[in-house]
Amino acid sequence: MNMILPAAALAAIVAGGGWWFTKSQPDASTIQLNQIVQAASEGSAEVDMSQVVEMTMGAVDAPVEVVEYASYTCPHCASFHQNVFKQIKDNYIDTGKVRFTYREVYFDKYGMWASLIARCDESKFFGITDLIYKGQADWARAGSDAAIADELRKIGLLAGLGAEQLDQCLSDGDKLRALVTWYQENATKDGIRSTPSFVIDGQTVSNMSYADFSAELDKRLNQ
């Protein structure tokens, strides 16, 4: 389980990342990405969060609402999505019982890059998210910044996105700033301390097995 960082610590990671450059020799495109990440932490007074779209699936009038907070670089989140989530989707989301929302949590710039890839075509968001989690063990350990960025681009290409489209998404500094601000405000409001965490009908709960998650959903459905 990954622990949520305070806003100040997150800002230090994304803004003060001189040490990132001592670990590898990134190419020009990777340097540009690092500059965008730094810009994302430099205040939120003029950030337009109206461009951030909630990523949801399931019936609009479903009786139970679930919001997941997860990071693309969190191994526990990958495990949840490859195991528990698939059963929840089959048995609760697809059957109209649960309205599900996914909200990104940002621990590091790699999770931010993955988020920009996933949101590059909102109609493909959940499919790309699935590919990102399936390949997490590979892309997250690819080595240098440039290698990780290239592996994430490959996921986008596999999902049917174009190379130019991906470059435009990864260079969208305004969107990244909005996403970081949006994440910080939501995580603070819902009291998120670790990933994955869930808000079920307004109540924040920690990661659970499918049996426990199912029992929690059934309890609310039967109220």
From TrEMBL:
InterPro entries in the cross-refs: Thioredoxin-like_fold, Thioredoxin-like_sf
Superkingdom of origin organism: Bacteria
Domain Thioredoxin-like fold intervals: 53-219
Protein name: DsbA family protein
Species: Thetidibacter halocola
